[in-house]
Amino acid sequence: MREYEPRVVPWRFKSDLDELSVWFYPNKSGAPDMRREGVARVKCWSSRGPYVPHTVESTAHLTDAKLTDEQGITSDIPLQLSYTMAMIRFVNGLLDPTQQSQFAIPLHVLAERMGLPSWFVELRHCGTHEREMPSLEMLRMATDQALDWLWDNYWNAEPEQEFYGESAGLDSERATPDSVVDSQDIDRVLRKIPSISNLLASNRDLWKLQRVSSTFTGEQDARGPPIKKSKKEENPEERLERFVVTMKDAWKSSRGQRDVFLEKFMRKYRSHWRGVLELLAHRIHSFGFDLSRWILENYELTLKSGQSPLREIFDGPQLQKVVSQVCEHALDEKKMIMDWTRWCEMLRNHPNWIALQIVESCDARNSSANEKFRKRHHDEIRELKGLLQRFKTCVTSSDLTMYQIASVTKNSIEVSRGSPFQTSANEILQDLQKLKQAAEPKSFKWEPVPQWTPRPFGQV
To answer: Which Gene Ontology molecular function entries are recorded, alphabetically (predicted)?
Structure first.
């Protein structure tokens, strides 16, 4: 069983790639300047086949142009050509793989999704189509920022994340576990959800549609010159894209304290937010996994202690509806299977009713997957079915009953002060557990009784 699909790489050990990052960024690690050795190593790797990731290759190209400039032995025009070509290949290599629709998406939209400075697209357009090349000062600044972007999003990013097929953390920024979450920023972003939900209600697949290319791709409308829009005018797709970028920023800022973001999101959640739930799960990395983890942990906390943020928000029937929507709209069965190691560990640690719903939903949708996918992930699917059978035998309907009667601070079962019948949620849960144990079959052993004398039935 594996977490990611294997792929061929030109290095033998991960330590080789870590050493290369030290060579390319001596100012980050305080190591000696070995950038030229780093460029030579990437050239060596390139000779082994087309296996060098674009991010590694672009780092070498940009660094090589910078080293040529620092030597001071080349005139301005060759330097401009070197810098411009390195930037064009850097931008194109990042954005072109995302053009997978029938119509071309504007490059500035793709750059916004990836957190790439939009003026990189303008620079690429100028170097490709314009008569005059960008100035040397502008190219130097762009190269420095591109190298910083690669450091933040590839070389120094968390390894468990993926970005468009490369095993590297390019989707979010690195953050320390003790980073402080700005609750006001999260609240400000979540206040935009109702309007976005209304927007998706009229066209639920709006976020899946692709827009026709703008002048960023060098194309013009054959019917005539483009009509300039007013600055205040914003079409629904641009509005939706701006919302996604804002949500991603809030998600990044909550790294290390994701529960704060998720709790605030669930406290505001409404049943008609299904489109927003699906949008966030597909556009924000690990949102579906972290949301499922938060619900599982809080549900189990409710069963143990009678109180949790989840119980404060949803009662039993509401929770059933929310879990159904999460399984239907926030979970992708193919992504779960491809990341099954992490999902399996989480589900095994929380064998409750919600885990059963997640596994059942994933198993039902995997039955309709194509044969190639099922053969490739045969071991994971078999383990999923085994986990499903285990949950069916150990998870009982009393889970929901115990969750439903669990007391919450202010909404707990209260009796007038001084009454001898005052009770609490913990006592109710203990009584229910005793009843559950009493209902289990008991075995009795025959034991000898001293001085036993037979008596007719009915006599004492």
So the answer is: endonuclease activity
Contacts made by residues 246-250, CB under 8 angstroms, sequence distance 24+ = 246/189, 246/192, 247/189, 247/280, 247/283, 247/284, 248/115, 248/172, 248/283, 248/284, 249/189, 250/185, 250/186, 250/189
Nearest to 65 by CA among 81, 45, 54: 81
Q: How far apart are CA 180 and CA 228, in angstroms?
A: 42
d(CA 43, CA 150): 18
Burial letters for 183-206: b for 16+ Cβ neighbours within 10 Å, e otherwise? eeebeebbeebeebbebbeeeeeb
Give the span between the Cα atoms of 24 and 39, in whole angstroms: 8
The set of residues, in sequence order, having a beta carbon less than 8 Å from that of 388 and lying 6+ positions away, is 356, 359, 360, 363
What average pLDDT is seen over the chain?
A: 77
Which residues are paired to 163 by β-bridges?
A: 166
Q: List all residues 6 or more positions away from 63 whose beta carbon is below 8 Å from its beta carbon.
A: 24, 35, 38, 39, 147
Dist CA 67 CA 51 (whole Å)? 24
| pLDDT exceeds 80 at position 377 | yes
What pLDDT is stored for residue 440 in this prediction?
Answer: 56
pTM comes to 0.53
CA distance 33 to 24: 8
Name every residue whose Cβ is closer than 8 Å to that of residue 444 and which is 6 or more positions away in sequence: none
Q: Which of 348, 21, 66, 329 is nearest to 168 (CA)?
A: 21
The model's pLDDT over 301-333, given as tens digits with 9 standing for 90+, comes to 888 888 899 989 998 889 989 999 999 988 888
Tell me: the pLDDT tens digits for 67-126?
A: 999 988 888 899 999 999 999 999 988 888 877 655 667 787 778 777 888 889 889 989
Phi-psi category of 440—alpha, beta or left, where left has phi over 0 and alpha has psi -120 to 50? Answer: beta
Name residues whose C-beta falls within 8 Å of residue 25's C-beta, 6 or more positions apart in sequence: 147, 151, 155
